[in-house]
Write a structure and sequence with these properties.
By secondary structure, the chain is an alpha/beta fold. The chain is built from 6 helices and 7 strands, in the order E-E-H-E-H-H-E-E-E-E-H-H-H. The strands form 2 sheets. Strands 3-6-7-5-4 form a 5-stranded mixed β-sheet.
Length: 196
């Protein structure tokens, strides 16, 4: 009963509510493809479950912002780092850590960005969200939504799953647009939980 996936050569159509991949006894290329697709789906769902399980822990209204005035990535990261410091999530050097990480390799992916430190040195884990309705100029990209992530050493194992789940959700253009159109934290929360 406690399995994520059943791989079988038998017809198990009578098992409902189970993830099943039926393969041939010779494990063909098509079988391998079908198995990989099902495994990918299960892994994505697990990562999204982390977001669902920890949403109320990592996200809060005090770290949520909506901006319309023109800004670039430096101003955005500075404002978000200051907000996280004021709320007791990070130390004073967090802004410098964000700049260092972004200059090593851009943290903008299309229309979203996920600034984060290369160190897990936050006072407590949290995610600050900034929605910019007209877009932030970020290394020649136009970023509509920014998730600044601060990770405490105690939560470092969750970070990879959390980061990958965020990338997965935000890579879906419809989900991204839906979230970027939010006008309040309550609306953002409802939309975010609906797309994961």
């Amino acid at each position: 009963d406690a399995c994520d996936l059943l791989v079988t050569t038998l017809d198990c159509g009578y098992l409902t509510g189970k993830e099943i991949v039926r393969i041939t006894p010779y494990f063909t290329i098509k079988d391998k493809y079908n198995l990989q697709m099902k495994l990918d789906t299960i892994l994505i769902e697990r990562k999204k479950q982390v977001l669902r399980d920890y949403f109320q822990v990592f996200f809060c209204s005090s770290l949520f912002m909506i901006k319309d005035e023109p800004m670039d990535e430096v101003a955005c990261m500075k404002e978000m780092a200051q907000k996280m410091q004021k709320e007791g999530y990070v130390y004073e050097d967090f802004y410098d850590c964000l700049l260092a990480r972004d200059s090593a390799a851009s943290v903008a992916f299309g229309n979203f960005a996920i600034p984060h430190s290369m160190k897990s040195n936050a006072i407590k884990t949290g995610i600050s969200v900034l929605i910019h309705h007209t877009g932030i100029s970020w290394h020649e990209k136009r970023v509509l939504i920014v998730f600044t992530v601060a990770i405490n050493r105690a939560d470092v194992e969750l970070y990879t799953e959390l980061f990958e789940a965020l990338i997965e959700v935000l890579s879906d253009e419809d989900s991204l647009k839906k979230l970027a159109d939010s006008c309040s934290y309550q609306e953002f929360t409802q939309k975010f939980l609906s797309v994961i």
